[in-house]
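Section 5: illustrative case.
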């Protein structure tokens, strides 16, 4: 079977020097606000003030708060993508597809738990941004590829969406903060979810 490996997405295209400096100043200012006051403090006006530039420049560069917050996640997102696209197994290439899928979903859960506040604000500002972003496209394509290798008979495009659906910051906040569920218990639940196909198969056989 031919394996398709993806490239890392979310990397900014080449920019003019002045545009790159403005982008860096805006992101640094937003990062300071998050560190000092939390992600709720990030507004276009607050970032413009912290970056010592006009708010129009911030809007022209990032469009809205959701795009700015997603940009703040780019560096960690690129490292995450590198780990599952080119890193060591079982997360990276070289392990069986089922093992890679399990490792990927575990790592994704860890990432969302760690970044849940800023991710939740970004998605709340623009709920559809998750599904139209290049980041989500990469996650979906990667999961689809692993499913296609493990279960070629399945509708892997839909199954990948369904597997990714629980991995949203609002659910992770509800579980870890509201219900005090540990990351280890979440990962055990992921393993149970991945193992349900065997229960379904036995039920369908009448055994």
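Designed sequence:
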């Amino acid at each position: 079977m031919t394996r398709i490996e993806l490239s890392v997405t979310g990397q900014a295209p080449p920019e003019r020097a002045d545009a790159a400096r403005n982008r860096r100043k805006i992101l640094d200012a937003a990062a300071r606000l998050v560190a000092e006051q939390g992600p709720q403090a990030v507004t276009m006006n607050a970032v413009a003030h912290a970056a010592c530039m006009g708010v129009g420049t911030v809007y022209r560069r990032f469009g809205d708060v959701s795009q700015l917050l997603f940009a703040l996640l780019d560096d960690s997102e690129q490292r995450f993508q590198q780990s599952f696209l080119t890193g060591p197994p079982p997360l990276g290439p070289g392990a069986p597809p089922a093992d890679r899928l399990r490792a990927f979903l575990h790592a994704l859960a860890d990432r969302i738990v760690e970044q849940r506040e800023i991710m939740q604000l970004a998605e709340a500002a623009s709920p559809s941004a998750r599904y139209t972003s290049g980041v989500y496209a990469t996650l979906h394509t990667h999961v689809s590829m692993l499913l296609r290798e493990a279960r070629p008979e399945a509708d892997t495009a839909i199954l990948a969406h369904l597997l990714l659906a629980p991995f949203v910051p609002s659910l992770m906040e509800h579980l870890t903060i509201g219900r005090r569920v540990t990351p280890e218990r979440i990962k055990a639940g992921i393993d149970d979810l991945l193992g349900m196909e065997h229960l379904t198969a036995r039920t369908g056989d009448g055994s």
